[in-house]
Amino acid sequence: MATVAHTVASKWTAAVQSTANNMDAVDAVRAFFLFATCTTLSVSGIPYLRARFVDYGPRATDSSRSASTIAAPRSPLTRFIDYLAAWRVPHSYFIHFYVLSVLSSIFWATQLLSRGPAFRVIAARVNEEHRSKSMSLNQVWLCWALMAIQGARRLYECIATAKQSSSQMWFVHWFLGLAFYIAMTLAIWIEGTGTLLARDITLDHLRVTNVPTPRTLLCLPLFLLASGLQHDCHHYLASLKKYTLPAHPLFLSVICPHYTAECVIYLALALLAAPAGESINKTVLSGLFFVAVNLGITAASSKRWYMQKFGEENVRNRWRMIPFLY
């Protein structure tokens, strides 16, 4: 029996290793985003787990207190789950996301320009189908620049608006955020691998010499507008002396307009990064799914917290994140 179990385990391990070795890099990045999205949805769908693992900040404090109040006598499983939930990091660790995003953007710029070892490893795992439908060099550098700008702006906002806070988040939330920015700074150029391999790249390619396409003329202003609105939201929230019901015009109909802007930013990037013959970049779009789900869950939690804190009548008619939809 032990021999049979060992044989099955060996075959399963070999199959997993073979799949990992043969998996296309583009598909792997997409799979990470979709796996993270499904995992977040699964955990958030169970209030008992959501209160412990998903909610953070003042929402987590209220949710955890409520969950502990109504909980049944603590079983071994409950004690184990509470033990895991106690592994938390300061909410200020959010700044690590944007430090990593900026550093990753710089890293990939040097790798793409020099065809460094990390680029070669990734490129070798991109199959011919994805190489044949590739982003142009202009698209690669434009989207890289916009992602770098997004990371740098958010880093600046964290530094400029940082406040002392006792809020915490589950360490997996922090780890998942780090993984997201590593994956997104890769996703922003990986579907341009075919072009990057076919042409030598120099700093001259960073110059904008081509006439912008209609897609660029539409999506670039969309990115900049969403970035500006998000910055305005963050600046306003940072100016509040304490937790109060936001009165800024952008918050009058939407609970979390800064989350709406975040989704629009990644939607614009997904459209700008569309490979030849495609209407959208599916890898960046997969990342957008994760962003929308993650922020959508937090927006719903924020609305519930606002109702408890300021009265249901004051926020009942405000959309959570997407006007007329959610």
Automatic annotation (TrEMBL):
Its EC number is 1.3.1.94. It is found in: Endomembrane system; Endoplasmic reticulum membrane. Keywords: Endoplasmic reticulum, Membrane, NADP, Oxidoreductase, Transmembrane, Transmembrane helix. Residues 211-326 form the 3-oxo-5-alpha-steroid 4-dehydrogenase C-terminal domain. GO terms for biological process: dolichol-linked oligosaccharide biosynthetic process; polyprenol catabolic process. It holds the Pfam family Steroid_dh. One of its GO terms (molecular function) is 3-oxo-5-alpha-steroid 4-dehydrogenase activity. The chain crosses the membrane at residues 31-49, 93-114, 172-190, 250-274, 280-300. This is Polyprenal reductase. It comes from Byssochlamys spectabilis (Paecilomyces variotii). The lineage of its organism: Eukaryota, Fungi, Dikarya, Ascomycota, Pezizomycotina.
